[in-house]
Design goal:
mainly beta, single chain, 2 domains
Amino acid sequence: MKRILLSVCSCLLIFNYTQAQTGAATDGIKKSLETTNKDTIGWVHSGIFSFGINEGFLHNWAAGGEVASLSINGVFHGNLTHFHNNNIWTNNLELAYGLNYAYSNSFVPRKTDDRIDFTSNYGTEVKGSKNFFLSGLFNFKSQFTQGYDYSIPNWQKNPTSDFLSPAYLTLAAGASYRRGEDLDLFLSPAAAREILASSRYTSLSAAGNFGIDSGKTSKFQFGAYFSGRYKKNLSKAVLFTTRLDLYSNYLAKNTTDANGNIVKKDNPGNIQVYWDNLFVWKAYKNLSLTLGLTVGYDNNQPYSKTYLDKTTNTIQDKNQPGENLGWIQINEIFTFGLAYKF
């Protein structure tokens, strides 16, 4: 009996030691992968998930304000990497969604954020180089649900976007410079892009949204593409990630009407810009502050001070604040809530 107990205890000790060593080895691999390219045993993953809720309630409040409100925001950034025999395959998934509920609009949910962004990059190391790769990249961008301009009348009947409207599919061949997980740069002189708009809402395609010709549901582009990612632990409690995407469409040209008059100026110099930044500060255990700022520019999405009121079929002025920002697109979130890093 004693021999059996000793054997069991020995097995348990060996198992625990092996698990500890395996865990330490995995942590070591993850740590080394932050700054170097090393062979991995299977897939190595990393990422962060942040979720926050903000609530407010007022009753007979002398200063006035929204009687009741609730905001929900969620952000996910995940990475899956496999590096073996000088071949590397990285996959990045970025998701974001936010809703706001307010008493003044009968708690009808209004979106504050909505993004789907997936990138897959496969590369083969250039012989004699530790950080340069010949790569092929695929990127998909879209959103989960319908989007609206809440400043216009009857906004419920006039969505400005939807799932797969738009959807951006990019396939590119080029070269990558990668220094572990903290820096990843990709440049392609040959990048094909397809822009899609669902035919579910004819108003979207009929208006020629997202750069798609009026009445069509897709648009093909071909050009140069750059995508850069950088991740840095500014301290034990603060994580910073940033990403910059640039796209130049070689096929861009001015749009003219039936009389040959230019109705929209465009050329390859109108570079499409997408710059995403995320700060996560771990305040206590899984409690955190998350700050996200996304800035974009797309010649296919100009800023318009006016809109068409389909009820009266007349042009109305939006009178929105921040009009001096022109065509620049800005999305900013600030959330206090839960964050899980893996």
